[in-house]
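Two proteins, back to back. First:
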Amino acid sequence: MATTILVTGATGTIGSQVVSALKGRNDVTVRAAVRSAAKADALKGGNVTPVDFEYTHPEQMKKAVEGVEKLFLVTPFAQDQVDLAARLVDAAKAAGVKHIVKLSAFGADYEGGIQLGRWHRSVERYIQGSGLAYTFLRPNNFMENFIGYYPPGKDGNIYLPWGQGACSFIAGGDVAAVAATALTTGGHENKGYELTGPEAFTIGQAAATIGEVSGRKVSYVDVPEAAAQKAMLDMGMPAWMVDGMMELHAIDKAGYAGQVTDTVQKVTGRAPMSFAQFAKQHAAAWK
């Protein structure tokens, strides 16, 4: 019989690619957790069925995990994310889920790290305490961020307070490939995987690559930290989120996100995508 897998965050950067990686397989049945299944026709088809899901609706959560054997867990980017995730872990355990693959964060296992990492680690520990099998995916920053969060503006500039810090960005598709492998094959239980791309590069180098594939003049502007903080607050971001993002930016600026691992290769059997490859695939996003 096919294994039933619930994928949360099914319309997000990683969750959507996990659904794609599992779609069409005969050995799994996929439930794609979305806010409105009626509006998720794009996900529907083959072995994929959208289901209504909200972390704040216990009945929806309970129904979504019924008959599920494996869960891909994406915690919402919210101040109460630890509590929300714990509710789902409890519901999953009660429903008989056997294995949780959690999307965590690079360095989350570093004790005393930044707030975002501490929240992820708290959820990791809660899962470990549940007695369920787990796999923690701890990816570095996503290459997709250059499309969704800090793309070059109309002036061709990428504005970030990163100085000359290098980061081993990873393509979301590679994270999804590791997730799909952990969800469908054995040997990944009770492990944590640090996931990176094949190389570390600076924002200036990323800007040059984006410029090459898009045919635009793209430059990096190193924004003073105080100015970056003010800009986010002026945009209406809550203070807790701004503080969390500034901590993350500081880690990147200091070069602490430059570590490169070979985990993607070991788990999936293929090398992770380079930023040059990613940029060519997504060149239209910057034109």
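And the second protein:
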Amino acid sequence: MSQKTILVVEDEQPIREMLAFNLGRAGYRVKAAADGREARAAIADGFPDIVLMDWMLPDVSGLELTRQLKRDPHMREIPIIMVTARAEEDDRVTGLDVGADDYIVKPFSARELLARIRAALRRAPGGDDDVVAALDLKLDAASHEVTVRGVEVALGPTEYRLLEFFMLHPDRVYGRTQLLDRVWGGNVYVEERTVDVHIRRLRKALTPFGYDKLIRTVRGVGYRFSAAAR
């Protein structure tokens, strides 16, 4: 299983450190934020695979931050689990209604939290158990292999990440800046033309199989991946 990144948004330092310790011991990569501002900075630095969101934050409520993230077309697919002491039924309903994928009440056991995380990741696009496919092109996230009719496609790490992103988000146009944010991450300075270089490499690797045409250039906008384009 490829290592997943969890963003913990929690203003109480002891709880934040406890979560980070348990999640790290379970094999996850952990980012931590004490408020909404730090959470947004952490997301800009590289999208997490899942967010654990406290309700009570010092600058913006976790409820409002969840609502904002779920309204953002670039972040709405990131699973969010509300982790809060608010246990009333109305609170649970409100949390789920604003877009939280799950809701867990403090105090909780580490086993229950990890089970909830695994379930949310399985439901998410590109979940741990998913093999993503487009026609005969298959990407196995667990083994990091890309094949066409059983023949492996040799890809560099950046080309693999590009293809994975495209296959998880088909039939949508993404500009170069968006691809830089989603594939390279916000903490890496890369010129926009670098995207074109890696797109050409990816197409070249897919050409022997006739699948280079799945990646279409949308003039003046960016790129779109579509199985219907072949």
